[in-house]
Amino acid sequence: MAPALPANGSERLLLEADLSAERAASVVRMAIAIVLLVTVEVVLKRSNDISLLDLTEARNQARATLGLLFFAGLAVYLLVKFGRWRPWMAYVTVTVDIAVLVGSLLADLRDLRLPVAFMSMFPVVGVFPLLLAVSALRIRPWVQLYALCLTLVGLALVACMGGWGSNLAPETFLRDAEMFYSVPANTARAAMLALGGAVLVLGALRGRRLLNRAVAETTRRLNLARYLPAELLPVLSSDNIEELRTGRRAEVALVFIDIRGSTAMGEAMSPAALTGFIGAFRARVTRAARQHGGVIDKFIGDGAFIIFGLPQTNGDDAARALAFCRSMLASVDEWNGLRKATDAVPVAVGIGVHFGTAFVGAIGDEQRLEFTVMGDAVNVAARLEDATKAFEVPLVASRDALKAAGEDPQSAGSPWRSLGTQALRGRNEAMPIYTLENSAV
């Protein structure tokens, strides 16, 4: 059974890269085994003409070693292909590869009874760095470090155990050992060098491709972030964007806020002054929303729409929404104090707050998503903000909002006073609404 892909986009990307790297590494290992097997047959073909060095066992040992290397690569390829591969198996693969090479090198030294100082004459020594290059394809530093340490330990083991001495006369040994540095043998070394370079090029290409995919994914998320509220960036980074696009129904607290008489105020201002005025208002809304954990869905001219309960709903969403409303009223009072010092016209706001079920999601494609909160609860909150004009109060809250916040307007000492049961504009059903005591526009 194939391992389940992680939900997180970056983790899934890395897992896919790991699987692809293991597949590539297994193919490279099989190619190495085939190339070296052909080379061994060419290099050791002269063994029949040499009487002093019997290379029959060396040839058989080389065939067995390269056969094990080939079938180990084939086994990994099949495990990846049929979804049986697991990340921990990379350590097993590295161990098998190094063990096969160390065993082959020891056997060659033993069969030819050569001292360890001559181990570099065997082309198989060149496979060690080649396998390290193959291991680098995984882009897994700990596996690469393990392969390096195991290689060093293996070569140290050869140095300790491969201390045999030759019975041949020096001149005879050197004459017959010349074959290990002949054109075929050096051709094998050149082939391994070329394979190593090709593996490193492949690793660079794979790393570049992974980088390009990561950059493309980051760019896509940044494009989405341009059109979604900044508070939803954690949703994008945790790869829940599909859930956001699917949408859901959630109980959220909704707040509409608007500047009263802004049209007349704007007509008396210069464009630069109006820009600064609207900017100052939005800065106060943004500061209060962040303070109480609200998500600004959008600014609408001189107004704003704020949601409490995103990206996940909490039990205190309504309470935080009311706290935001109180903070905004206090901020507007402070702002008016500053404006009074410059003889500027005081600012009045209207705020409507409601708690109810709404559809929350993002509509659009991957290039542009528009965050949307829809439903009757949104209409009610907008109508409550509109009702502040009729009742000449800065804040109107529904009973649902007060109840969800744990505030009882009927209790003694409650700061809320009833505005009666009213049928809001555009709605047939009447509902109880409240405002803060002693509040007035």
From TrEMBL:
Its EC number is 4.6.1.1. This is Adenylate cyclase. It is a multi-pass membrane protein. Signal peptide: none annotated. One of its GO terms (biological process) is cAMP biosynthetic process. One of its GO terms (cellular component) is plasma membrane. The keyword Cell cycle does not apply. Residues 253-385 form the Guanylate cyclase domain. It is found in: Cell membrane.
